[in-house]
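Aggregate trends can hide what the representation actually does to any particular protein. In the encoding step, the backbone of a single protein was reduced to a row of integers, each denoting a local shape. The record that follows shows the chain in one-letter code together with its fold in token form.

***
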Amino acid sequence: MKRKLLSAMLCAVLAINGSPVAMAATKVSDGVVKIGVLTDMSGTYSDLAGPGSLLAVQMAVQDFVAREKPGFKVEVISADHQNKGDISANKAREWIDTEKVDAIIDLVTTSTALAVMKVAKEKNRITIVSGAASTPITNEQCTDTNVHWTYDTYALAVGTGRAVVKQGGKNWFFLTADYAFGKALEKDTTDVVLENGGKVLGRVLHPFPAQDFSSFLLQAQSSGAQVIGLANAGNDTINSIKQAAEFGVTPKQSLAGLLMFITDVHSLGLKATQGMYLTTGFYWDMNEETRAWSRRFFEKKQRMPSMVQAGDYSAMYHYLKAVKAAGTDDTKTVMAKMKEMPVNDFFAKNGKIRDDGRMIHDMYLAQVKKPEESKYPWDYYHIRQVIPADQAFTPLSKSKCPLVKK
């Protein structure tokens, strides 16, 4: 009799909620999964991340709800972190304490990523870094509540640095943004240059962000280096390249844009960037899948997505799938599910999240086309090499992350 009564009660619950999945979804706190997009909405990185990153996350949420029909609501809020760690940490704390945010995504600057990761660890919430690049994010300062999704400075060095040295660019001088990202990118690229028989003749640090690069470029010019490595990003990279041409630094010396985005190439034009190598985790025109999603993005944004924005979509969809599969928004349970599930979408095939939080996937060495080679709008890259996932990122054997078992 008791067994029949229990069976009847279970059937009644399933009838109300619609399915066992919906019943599991009642474990989601307040029946809502809330996402915070914390990014650079107005500064030097706003073009490659910013409003486009918010759009990508919104697209992921809309697609997830339409396709997966979860038994919970998903809400998205956003803020401008202004590339400042203190502002980011305060906003993260406010979101978690008062807005009940479950996960914070994007975090386009290393200082903001590390600051928010610390708060999220303390508050037991998930962070997903798509925009920031420094290897300490999944190395010395890794946390068990963070995932590093799109790229990092090690991958950039392995791709662009190695390619330029092999093309004969043996002697380098670095023009480096004076904060954690720039220094990490310079260090990782220096290691690759030296390992491949090159030399580093010097470096100069520039403020972040900067407008006038004249004195820094003159120091690079006087070094006599074949290659000036630009260990910066966004508007800093754009201004460096523009001013190098204005002061006659190029074409006598070559520039290596160690972190360049399709948005940078678009701003500068193919005439200014032709022939440059860059490393990317995504290119809109690689195959039918990438083209289909990117054209949807273009319809809303009127520009093709950067790898950061594509990574935001991929990461958010994966996170929401993990919440549904786990039947809860509990941080530990969702993180375990995210690491258990492979990543297979337009952004990554057979991707996986390692113990250190690094999502490993193939990276791509691209070369910017000559103007006459471009056949249609945003047709900017030759993909010269696929860098396999197991070669693109720091090997676990070299990891300093305390989460990695050796």
Notes: The radius of gyration is 22 Å. Residues 1-25 have pLDDT under 50 and may be disordered. The CA atoms of residues 78 and 366 lie 32 Å apart. The first strand starts at residue 32 and ends at 39.
